[in-house]
Amino acid sequence: MEQTFLMVKPDGIQRNLTGEIINRFERKGFKLAGAKLMQITDELAKTHYGEHKDKPFFGELVEFITSGPVLAMVFEGENVILTARDMMGKTNPLEAAPGTIRGDYGMTVEKNIIHGSDSPESAEKEISLFFNSSEILDYSKQD
Ligand code: CMP
């Protein structure tokens, strides 16, 4: 089953939006397969956001994502990668449609509440960067 990496950023944690965000993905039908409340190190932030290292906002991005705890998660389900991106809305909350997570709660392009993998390749890379295989659980729903 397809899996994606989703992360509630420090602004989402501080604003107590964690439950709301998990709820949206669970109610859609996706299954939580891994979750970790953690403080990202400088090194992990730079690796995770490596593709942005030449962008002018890279320093601010690393500073922000390491400024407080994040909730790293693995969700799974059919087409979860693209569907989760649709549910998150556009990167800039000012452009994100109402009804999406960023459209409803995001404030700025930096404080945009949530990160989600944008392709199967980045999902695989990001999941293995944040989780050991033993931290991703395979369970079936009990009747
Ligand atoms: P994310 O999906 O986590 O991936 C890269 C992040 O860079 C993105 O969300 C934004 O939060 C951030 N970002 C993009 N553009 C800017 C910008 N102009 N200034 C600050 N942060 C940005």
What are the distinct ligands in this entry? adenosine-3',5'-cyclic-monophosphate
Low-confidence stretches: none
- List the total number of helices: 7
Q: Which H/E pattern describes the elements?
A: EHHEHHEHHEH
Number of strands: 4
Q: Briefly note the structural class of the backbone.
A: alpha+beta
C-alpha-based Rg, rounded: 14 Å
Estimate the global geometry from the Cα principal axes. Answer: globular
Walk me through the topology.
Elements: E1 3-8, H1 10-14, H2 18-28, E2 31-38, H3 42-48, H4 58-65, E3 70-76, H5 80-88, H6 101-105, E4 114-116, H7 120-130
Antiparallel strand pairs: 1-3, 1-4, 2-3
The chain binds adenosine-3',5'-cyclic-monophosphate (CMP).
Features:
single chain; 143 residues; alpha+beta; four-stranded antiparallel β-sheet; 7 helices; binds adenosine-3',5'-cyclic-monophosphate
If you had to describe this structure to a student in words, what would you say it looks like?
This protein is α+β, with helices and mostly antiparallel strands and 143 residues long. It contains seven helices and four strands, in the order βααβααβααβα. The protein has helices at 10-14, 18-28, 42-48, 58-65, 80-88, 101-105, 120-130; strands at residues 3-8, 31-38, 70-76, 114-116. A four-stranded antiparallel sheet has the order 2-3-1-4. The longest helix has 11 residues, at 18-28. The two termini are 21 Å apart. Bound molecules: adenosine-3',5'-cyclic-monophosphate (CMP). Homotetramer. Its cofactor is Mg(2+).
